[in-house]
Sequence to fold (353 residues):
Amino acid sequence: MRSSIRTAGFHARAATGLLALALTLTACPTTTPQGEAKGEANAAGEAAAGEGTPAAEAGDAATPTPTPEPAGLDPVLEQLLAYLPSDTLAVGYDRMSARWNPATIATVFALPPKAAIVLEERQLLDDALAQAFEPAEGGAADLSWLGPQSVAFTIPVIRHAYLVRPLLRPPAELDATFAAAGFMREEIEGKLVWLPKGAFPWRIAILDDRTAAFVPVDPGAGLAPLLEALTTEPTAVEKELVEVLGRDPAIELTVLAGGPMLHFDVDATIAQLQFGLRNAAPQAAYEGLVMIVPDGDVDECGNALRARTAPEENQQVQALIKAVQWDPQSTVTPPQVSGRLAIARDQAKQFTQ
Fold:
């Protein structure tokens, strides 16, 4: 069996709600920061990762347009998820066309730290790569060998996230690039691994001709979780992510996390969280939906989320925080709180780095 009892429950419950969240996002009307409907829902297809929440009511001013026929699965998504272990605590799939600030995403959508880490580690990796591969003569680093997509995940005991990304050039062509950046070549568990000399916080493992993994330098972190994932049955989450995200390329960011997780704004711990961000062009820039399962009363959780403040943020970000529409749902299983926000084009710049 691929999953332990604990993680099997998380994966099964998460997968149950993915399609429900897809329908919810597809039916979500574009709104202003004050929550007024101003256009039809984006109809680029089904949307991403969620927990069994029924489709939201679109409102009188917005009528969803028909969903197009599925465009087929995403081979890169399948390629990266093949290395997803069964005991993940949090997992994020990122294929955003522009880089958004993970701290702002987490603040606006109330993501707890143990979920937001998969977004923060992607930013940390991008910054570390830019520094490590910067040419000696100056200028921007040439990272054309690395695809933009990533699967990031955390596992028990290891502090930092693993990240798996596609290679765009054959590994044999990268030896000089890695050596010039100060990495040392070694073979570990039958795989070519490039070890950093400086402060770069990952080892770069060549998993196959098309895939590289960034393995934390944390004590105890190694290749075993990645390699074992290839020999075990895919989890329910992995299968559903491939199915749902593969059929809707407009879903650009997804986070799934299992608890218990501490939350800065909610007294109860969080048992489960799922978040999806979908490109909503042409009606809006993006639509986001987060589903939170608290270990406590959902109405109290919803009230706490509505009362959030972030005085350290600018007025525009504070307005986005207040615009998230929180809906406690006590009649679904498990009881949960969903939050939704449509982000207009002029608001999207608040998220960009």
In short: The chain is about 30% helix and 25% strand. Residues 5-348 form one domain.
